[in-house]
Amino acid sequence: MTPGSQALPDGLVPLKIAIVGHTNTGKTSLVRTLTRDANFGDVSNRAATTRCVEGSTLLVKGRPFIELYDTPGLEDPGGLLELIDGRRGDGRADWIDVIEAFLASDEARGRFSQEAQAIRQVLASDAALYVVDARDRVLGKNRDELEILGRCARPVVPVLNFVAGSGAQTAAWRAHLGRINMHAIAEFDTVVFDATGEQRLFETMRVLLARFRPTLDALIAERASERARLVRSAAELLADLLIDAAAFSLIVPETEIDRQHESIAALQRTVRDGEQRCIAALLELFRFTSDAYEADRLPLEDGQWGIDLFSPAALRQFGIRAGSAAAAGGLAGVAIDVVTGGLSLGAAAILGAALGALWGSVATHGRRLGDVFRGFTELKVTEETLRLLAARETLLIEALLRRGHAAQQAIPASRSDEDAVRRHAWMDRSLPETLVDARIHPEWSRFAVLDARAAPNDRDRTIARDRLADQIEHHLAQVESQAIGKAPSETRAG
């Protein structure tokens, strides 16, 4: 009879899982990645990093229904197997009785203390996950470990870790495990995360743990929902950043354009600060610390000067809102021709038509046009900068989606992978219409919250943000559906 608790009214049964295996196969790493907790336990290249049993939980419907227990590595399985075989005597004793006798012996408190802790936890659990470093060859120690676990009368699911790299000997491990009648095998890399691989791990456990099927089904469904929310939240963070950057402008007196380097520096500082806030928010969203990413400075161009009230996006906006106001604005062309000091009659008429449209939206474009006549101009980031910003942050999100919480190496900044940035889809296509529209709406930028014109909670901005987030989310979903490429070189961790 297994130690699991009775089913609750909703059919969920609390499940206890022991994580076992040889030293430095990634047992602690598995718990870190499954719990999304990069600080769980101690991960190191040193042997026997985990010296005692440590537990953590997985929430199902907001409750801790699955308990994971990380155990010390099995350092001398051959010696332990020989000891247990010798204790069976005439060969008729039940293996559980033999193992219980070992756990009560002096050897369990001395030479085999680590192995005893692991076996004791297996007996106290409903199942065991046997973690294997798939980069290693199948050795005698592995056969001994599996023999010992088989005598504990608990379901055992082998988990092949570090399978994303080219050095994984997955086929050899599967062949060996099949020869000892272990066919329910999971492949799950704790460093290069794969949401599908995690789901298959839970599905493999479900095959051997029929009594806990409702619990595991609920966990699988909850993890899928969490993943979808994660992707959407990341898309919204990036969409917010891009709209903030596209809409942001500095109002500069034309008499100070000769001091433009100061204005350019202020623009660059504002955009870079915005990017850093987005990076920090993304790392927090994915539950990573700041040292998980090697941040670098966003390379910015000087910026784009001038108020382009006659861009296609602006004229389209004016046409939509203007209606008959355009005709009224046309009458203002003569007066504006004088004010502007010699614009051609045609240009003045166009400007007047634009102004007529702007009169229907004084709070936004009318004020911008007023700035022109008062001798001010705008400084904005270039479209190239927006593309670069989008590519950098999208690459970061893609990396975070593939990053397990056992990863030890920081995600390299985009500067170290300039080819990836240049090849990114953002770099060879025109800006989404949403960002083009944002460039004529300085009030949409949250970078300017101290500016009286700023209204970042504007309904139109929210609609634009959601539309852009939909596009980003679609791209990220495509990335999620693709097979994981080669794993980065990682130090093995226990």
- Most strands sheet: 6 strands, mixed
- Given as residue ranges, the uncertain stretches (5+ residues, pLDDT < 50) are 302-352, 355-363, 450-454, 483-494
Proportion of strand residues: 5-15%
Task: For the record, give the distance between the C-alpha atoms at the N and C termini, rounded to a whole number.
Answer: 31 Å
Radius of gyration: 31 Å
Domain count: the total is 2
Which geometry do the CA atoms define? elongated
Query: Can you list the strand order of the major beta sheet?
Result: 2-3-1-4-5-6
Tally of strands: 9
The level of helicity is 40-55%
* Overall pLDDT: 78
Number of helices: 19
Question: Which structural class fits the helix and strand makeup?
Answer: alpha/beta
Order of secondary-structure elements: EHEEHHHHEHEHEHHEHEHHHHHEHHHH
Describe this structure in words.
This protein has 494 residues and is an alpha/beta fold. The protein has two domains: 15-208, Rossmann fold; 229-481, no CATH class. Helix content is 50%, strand content 10%. It contains 19 helices and nine strands. The chain has helices spanning 27-35, 77-87, 95-103, 106-109, 113-123, 140-150, 170-179, 195-208, 213-247, 260-285, 312-322, 325-331, 333-339, 345-358, 362-373, 383-401, 418-423, 433-438, 459-481; strands at 15-20, 54-60, 63-70, 127-133, 156-161, 186-187, 250-253, 304-305, 376-380. The strands form two sheets. A six-stranded mixed sheet has the order 2-3-1-4-5-6, sandwiched between helices. Helix 2 crosses helix 6 (140-150), helix 9 packs across helix 19 and helix 13 packs across helix 14. The longest helix is centred in the middle third of the chain and has 35 residues, at 213-247. The radius of gyration is 31 Å and the shape is elongated.
